[in-house]
């Protein structure tokens, strides 16, 4: 069961989420995108966020507010850092039009 705790780092109030793994509970404190280590990591973090945006799109969701503030750095339990796209408050759902059957010929009506 996820639990949440508010954390004040001096400038921003963060919401810390406790992630439950099998037989462990690990605190997760996300970092802002500006805390990247080098240029390569920044590109990789943005790439992860773009992949998440693509998956949202495939599921019929448009994020609506992709910005620096909505991409965070998530550190996995194995010290791997990933870019995560958060804050779906302004997201919109849509239904993509189905592709027409290529075997059907267009006709004027």
TrEMBL record:
Domain Fungal-type protein kinase: residue ranges = 31-96
Source species, domain of life: Eukaryota
The record, for InterPro entries, names:
Pkinase_fungal
Q: Which named protein is this?
A: Fungal-type protein kinase domain-containing protein
């Amino acid at each position: 069961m996820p639990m949440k705790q508010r954390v004040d780092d001096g400038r921003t109030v963060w919401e810390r989420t406790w992630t439950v793994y099998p037989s462990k509970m690990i605190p997760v404190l996300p970092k802002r995108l500006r805390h990247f280590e080098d240029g390569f990591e920044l590109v990789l973090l943005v790439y992860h966020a773009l992949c998440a945006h693509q998956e949202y799109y495939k599921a019929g969701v448009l994020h609506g507010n992709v910005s620096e503030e909505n991409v965070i750095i998530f550190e996995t339990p194995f010290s791997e850092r990933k870019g995560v796209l958060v804050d779906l408050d302004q997201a919109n759902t849509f239904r993509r039009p189905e592709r027409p059957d290529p075997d059907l010929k267009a006709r004027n009506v």
